[in-house]
Structures are given as structure tokens and as C-alpha cells.
Amino acid sequence: MILDIATAGADTQAALLTLNNDHSRETSALTAAKWHDLISGAFLAGYVPPSSSFLIAFDERADYENPNFSWFADRFPRFVYVDRIVVSAGQKGQGLGRQMYAELFRRAHAADRIVIGCEVNLEPPNPGSDAFHATLGFEEVGRAYLADRSKTVRYLVKRL
């Protein structure tokens, strides 16, 4: 079951923010205020209870300043961009990531969005995320070096 982060209680919100920040190498660290802004503008900001995993995604209408989101906006007129997906270490391998993506695919299809995009770090490498997205049918459509973040990313797309 995927629940809405925006309607979660303060303890759950804090736990999810901590989970995000514990994975800041892959995502980016956020303050409580930035976390609130992120989830309030999302197409989907969902989590699996109690607070072991979450997914945050935006569609093309989002007011979201992010170079990766902008990369997709420059190329696709209608899309959903997965900004971050995190599954806690103790919950990996239980299908939570697949469950969250299945919900995203369902909602995106219902909203007539057939392109799902995301980025995965190439440098520093994130082989777990690469493998996971490949099993879901994502394919590379581009790359970029993000100088302000000192990382290179691969842009991936799945067409529904």
C-alpha cells in the first residue's frame, strides 16, 4: 500500500526526511522546509508504511528547478520525472521499489503520461539503481555532467 507523504503525521514525515538524508549521496540532502516544498508540488509523493521507502515524482507542469527535471522538460512535452526513490537497507529485496513504481505507472497512465524519466548516477556509480531500473524496462536516452554536484548522470526513460 502506497500512502501520501503530504498527509502523513509529523513523526513519519521526519523519518522519511531522515531516510532521504541518509541517502544524500544518491538523492541530495534536504532541510525540512525543502522537503515540504518537494512533496507539496509532486505528481506522486508516496511512501510504504511505516516509513521504510518512498518515491517522489513530478510531471511536466511542476514548478521545479532542477537540472535533471529540466533535461526531460526540454525533450518531452508530457512526462513524469522520478526525482528520488529510496528503500531503506533493511527493506531491500522485498519488492517495495517495484510496488512504488507500479503505483506511479498506474497513475501516470491514468493521467495520460506515457513517458517516465529518471536519472541514475554514473559517477559516482550506483549499480544497484542501474540494475533495478533495467529490470523495469528503463533505457538510457542521454547523459550529463552536473558540475555543481560533481557527478555524471545517465538519463533513463520507460515508455508506458
TrEMBL record:
Matching entries from Gene3D superfamilies are given as: 3.40.630.30
User: Known InterPro entries for this protein?
Assistant: Acyl_CoA_acyltransferase, GNAT_dom, UCP028520
Ranges of residues in domain N-acetyltransferase: 3-160
Top-level taxon of origin: Bacteria
For this protein, the parts annotated as crossing the membrane are: none
Q: What are the recorded GO MF terms, alphabetically?
A: acyltransferase activity, transferring groups other than amino-acyl groups
Q: Which PROSITE patterns match?
A: GNAT
Signal peptide limits: none
- The protein depicted here goes by the name N-acetyltransferase domain-containing protein
